[in-house]
Amino acid sequence: MELDPTRAKWQQISAEVERRIDAGQYPKGSKLPGILALCAEFNVAQVTARKALADLRARGVIRTENGIGSFIL
């Protein structure tokens, strides 16, 4: 996926992950790819990927267990 330079990268990543969840690519209860995998896929810094996950967490889309990963709710 190519990111739009006119929009915040973290917002685009958050929207793409949520789209994948809605499409069933990431089923409920499954583990999301880790921070490093998201960084590699979207070619962004860790802080950007973390902010995208924080947004999803704040909106109740995922839950994160420290040291284990993020999971779809």
Question: Residue share in helices?
Answer: 40-55%
Molecular shape: globular
Low-confidence stretches: none
What do the pLDDT scores average to? 96
Number of strands: 2
Report the span from N to C terminus: 24 Å
Q: Tell me the major beta sheet.
A: 2 strands, antiparallel
- Rg over CA atoms: 11 Å
Order of helices and strands: HHHEE
Structural class: mainly alpha
Strand content: 5-15%
What's the arrangement of strands in the largest beta sheet?
1-2
Put simply, the count of helices is: 3
Describe what this molecule looks like in 3D.
The chain has 73 residues and is mainly alpha-helical. It has three helices and two strands. Helix 1 (9-22) crosses helix 3 (46-58). The model has no long low-confidence stretch (mean pLDDT 96).
Top keywords for this entry?
73 residues, mainly alpha, 3 helices
Short description:
This protein is mostly helical and 73 residues long.
List the helices and strands and how they pair.
Blueprint: H1 9-22, H2 35-42, H3 46-58, E1 62-65, E2 69-72
Antiparallel strand pairs: 1-2
